[in-house]
Design a protein that fits this description.
Elements (H helix, E strand, L loop, with lengths): L3 E6 L8 H10 L8 E10 L2 E10 L7 H5 L5 E4 L4 E4 L9 H5 L6 E2 L5 E2 L5 H4 L6 H5 L5 E5 L6 H8 L2 E2 L11 E4 L1
The structure holds iron/sulfur cluster (3 copies).
Amino acid sequence: MKKYAMVIDTKSCVGCGDCVIACKTENLVPEGLHRDWIVEDVSGKFPNLNMEIRSERCNHCSNPPCVTYCPTGASYINRGTNIVLVNKSKCTGCKACIAACPYDARFIMPEGYVSKCTFCEHRVKKGLSPACASVCPTHSIDFGDVNESVSNVSKLLRKRKYKILIPEAGTRPNVYYLI
Ligand code: SF4
Ligand code: SF4
Ligand code: SF4
């Protein structure tokens, strides 16, 4: 079984937003809605300030509260790929998953169903990278199978220091940030 993950390098991301534009174009995300977004996280005290730039999206959690709290089974994990998806024909737009997600990764489409990042499953099935990863000018986004020890993502996670977002939520994210 595959376990797809994304590894994003906060040291090389320049916050250009090309990943956000590529996602909108690839996935026809309506105006004003986003499947991915850029966060500029400032820490420390003046004059010793540090800014981390992150391209964020759904974390494709292994323990996803959005799936647990979805009353219709519309939100689910594809057990073959570990990608968290929404079956729009089963989604009633009740927003329980939106309330349950600690990362604010979901939104309602104008048609009334919930949407979010799909790890570009339609591209991955064809052997392509997710749109955001494929356009990043600084090659800050890697995507692959962490169950495969020779994949780029596995190698990066062995070589570099990394973190996940809001670990205390217990969601077990599959988006990792190199720090
Ligand atoms: Fe950062 Fe790459 Fe996204 Fe630009 S495209 S914001 S460098 S992750
Ligand atoms: Fe669900 Fe949110 Fe985790 Fe994505 S980030 S799998 S929407 S809980
Ligand atoms: Fe958008 Fe695809 Fe990247 Fe997810 S993986 S943020 S759907 S481009």
